[in-house]
Amino acid sequence: GKCLADRLQVSNVWVGNAGSVKLRGVSFTSKGFGIERVRDDYKQLSRVLQALIRISGGDITKVPPDYREFLALLGNDNLTMRDEFLIVNHAALLPMKNRTEVFLMLHNIIVKYLGRTNRAKKRRILSKLPYENDWLDTARANAQINKWVVKCQNEYRRTQLDLLRLNRNVRSHLHEYNDDNIEEILYCEWPELLMDMVKLLHLEGELEDTDIQNKFG
Question: Do 45 and 109 have their domain in common?
Fold first, then answer.
């Protein structure tokens, strides 16, 4: 493996008008490579990203919860080499246009694939998903999402499986109510849902078998 030859600086990061990011003036070396060096590099990356947010006029205390967890993950003292796959494929980095496809892919893996091959993993993932107590109230309180709630033939129950079912149903019929912003609406109401699906699949050793690494373009 390789790590950065020198500490990453804000001046090494070039951000294009369309939001693309490139590194300049950096090099990599195998000298001194090890988990401690990798952790140091990720911690420095977290500092640089936070500095870029402040430079752009953003408020670091108001970043979305999934991005806040991404920054915290970069600074985790207990990162392992295995966690690199989670970092570089973190849900906070997904383009909004690809989030629907990724959700449907991960839903199929959790509900259908693991439902057939490893029900214990499926149960563990479902039990740890967020918004357990209030997701249905949130859905009913949102005029756009509630359209899918009231028209559903099989009434939604307050279970994590039905939280996924509602999100799947909305994303499977995105244009049914001519709302082009529904993906953004789902993200605003449940910003940690997709992130936790990714994280829990990683913890269960199932994330690398998905196609998530090809969904960031």
Answer: no
